[in-house]
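hey can u run this one w/ NAP bound, need the structure tokens asap thx
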Amino acid sequence: MRVIVLGGTWFVGRAIAHALVAAGHIPLLVHRGRDEPAGLPDVEHLHHERETWPDRRADFASFGADAVIDVSAGNATGARAALMALPPGVRLIALSSVDVYRAYEGMLNHRQTDAVPLTEDSPLRTARYVDGPHWENLELEELYLTAGATILRLGAVYGEHDYQHRFEPVLRRIRAGRPRVPVGTGSFLFSRVYVGDVAQAVLAVLASERGGGECFNIVEAQTAPMRLFYEQVIAAAGADLELVRVSDDRLPADLRSVGAVDQHLLASAQKAREVLGWRDSDRETAMRRSVRWHLNNPPLEWSDDFSQDDAALRAG
Ligand SMILES: NC(=O)c1ccc[n+]([C@@H]2O[C@H](COP(=O)([O-])OP(=O)(O)OC[C@H]3O[C@@H](n4cnc5c(N)ncnc54)[C@H](OP(=O)(O)O)[C@@H]3O)[C@@H](O)[C@H]2O)c1
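ok here u go:
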């Protein structure tokens, strides 16, 4: 298939581009071209700012796409620009997040609002733009669903090239040779997914006979609570870092998620397993690969100030 990837060069889109090539598809990566990271697959690029896409319809049409994956719409404005530019009749896939569920709003507001696991029918948020002025997955879902797209609602994505550095609270302490890390209640359940498995979910949609206009949660089948997750990161790094239980209110700022959280964000991917035949891959292998990449590629800037750790460990 000839597949337009809207985005495709940073993290999730990059993994999708690699998976498309490995599966024999022909991708076109559409982005601004601010950065052309090393190691991208050798494929065609189209460099335009998203807001100009409606004026570039001819460029989009000339690729002769069978399918389009919007990795980076962000909100209604972004989705609208894409939908105005794309040729009619192509299969549409758009990435969203489990942040569309009301449970996410509950978590942010320290309230318990929903039973888990969250399914595609769980209540959605009523508040909008809860993560700032640029991101609103509810908006892009509304536009893309109306256009007949398949929506993939992702859990917290981890893996190679993750610019959010989800393992960093643990890895910076390992890099600094810290012997002990303070942790709190550690019971928070937040569904995760390996970036390579997100790419496989996109391939599963492309291979499916199912029409669009529906959503799928794409999350791992089993979710370690936050404290156990940290232990898994430590084990995958082959490090010796002792977790020491302290009072939640003494946790350093970057370790708050290992304190008590009122609303879990545990989602179910049963529908994707049943309808798309999608499965998440072996967790230990995914963790090892991801942690190794992050150990080899630390953030350019990171703090080696552990005074909050020392205070929490002293106070208990
Ligand atoms: N990370 C998570 O935990 C998580 C969780 C849930 C859902 N998601 C979803 O994953 C997606 C994000 O993945 P990603 O950032 O890793 O995707 P990506 O496709 O790998 O990277 C973003 C792409 O967008 C391009 N871009 C950014 N601003 C642009 C603009 N104004 N005009 C044109 N192109 C632009 C960037 O290239 P240039 O800079 O060259 O333009 C880059 O190619 C989102 O849909 C998000 O909702 C992520």
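The chain is about 35% helix and 15% strand. anyway lmk if its weird
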